[in-house]
Amino acid sequence: MSGELGHFALILALCLAVVQATVPLAGSYTGNRTWMSVGPSTATGQFVFLAIAFGALMQGFLADDFSIRYVAENGNTQLPVIYKVSAVWGAHEGSLLLWVLMLSGWGMAVALLSRHLPQVMQARVLSVLGMVAIGFLLFMLFTSNPFERLYPVPAEGRSLNPLLQDPGLAVHPPLLYMGYVGFSVAFAFALAALLGGKLDAAWARWSRPWTTTAWIFLTLGITLGSWWAYNELGWGGWWFWDPVENASFMPWLVGTALIHSLAVTEKRGAFKTWTVLLAIAAFSMSLLGTFLVRSGVLTSVHAFANDPARGVFILAFLSVVVGGSLAIYAWRAPHIRGGGRFDFVSRETFLLANNVLLVVVAALILLGTVFPLIYDALGWGKISVGFPWFNKMFVTFMPFLLLLMGVGPLARWKHHDPADLVRRLRLAFGVSLAIGIAFALPVYQGASALMGLGIGLAAWLLLSLWLAVRDRLKHRRGARAVLRDLTTQGRSFYAMVLAHLGVAVTLIGITLVANLEAERDVRMAPGHTYELAGYGFRFDGVRNVQGPNYLAARGTITVFDGDRQIAVLHPEKRNYGPGTMPMTESGIDVGVTRDLYASLGEDLGGGEWAVRLYYKPFVRWIWAGGILMALGGLLAVSDPRYRVRVRRRSTATAGEALAGGRA
Amino acid sequence: MLRYLLPLGIFAALAGFLAVGLKLDPKEVPSPLIGKPIPEFVLPRLEDPKRRFGSADLKGQVALLNVWATWCVSCRAEHQVLQALKESGVVPIYGLDYKDERDKALRWLQVLGNPYEAVAFDEKGRAAIDWGVYGTPETFVIDKRGIIRHKFIGPLTEEKVEDILLPLVRKLKAET
Question: Is B30 a domain residue?
Answer without folding.
Answer: no
